[in-house]
Amino acid sequence: DARVTQTPRHKVTEMGQEVTMRCQPILGHNTVFWYRQTMMQGLELLAYFRNRAPLDDSGMPKDRFSAEMPDATLATLKIQPSEPRDSAVYFCASGFQPGTGYTFGSGTRLTVV
Amino acid sequence: GNSVTQMEGPVTLSEEAFLTINCTYTATGYPSLFWYVQYPGEGLQLLLKATKADDKGSNKGFEATYRKETTSFHLEKGSVQVSDSAVYFCALSDVRESNFGNEKLTFGTGTRLTIIP
Q: How confident is the model over B77-101, as pLDDT tens digits?
């Protein structure tokens, strides 16, 4: 089965450090999403891309977060500087056609101490 | 804007019991509706979907029917198993071409289901 691959699976970092999370979408999928999951807020959309172009990043704190797709096989989410409140599980998802659902990766569990 | 409201959890049932998890939605367009399941320590998996009114999605014994008149998409299963213990998310995406860019998934808050033997 094709899958969305996220790295790293777990990341513990100190406050103020830069964190980069990576996602390899399923080959041929042209839409990529970044979601954040916390107990308090549930699933929040941070950003998404279609054909590598950002369509909506309104859910992302612009001063510290950035999301890019350098090429069709890689999406990145960067936090600089990281803060304890950024501790969460970050999911990447990809898809091709609206209405068919999207495939999620296993997530990156980030802990900022 | 679009929103999804689902049944508060947690829900605890005995094995072989009947399951219903309620989900209602608000959407300005013509949404597709989804149920996702998340097992402990894993990402979300698509469980079933329905793309238009009166469609029934089904998978692994779970079913949900897209009811436009009541704006609902309730998840049901006739006989649950311990292995069904997970968190279930109802979601929608608006796929109108005229609303380009609105196909992002809007999720409910999730319902934690625990099945006891």
A: 999 999 999 999 999 987 654 444 5
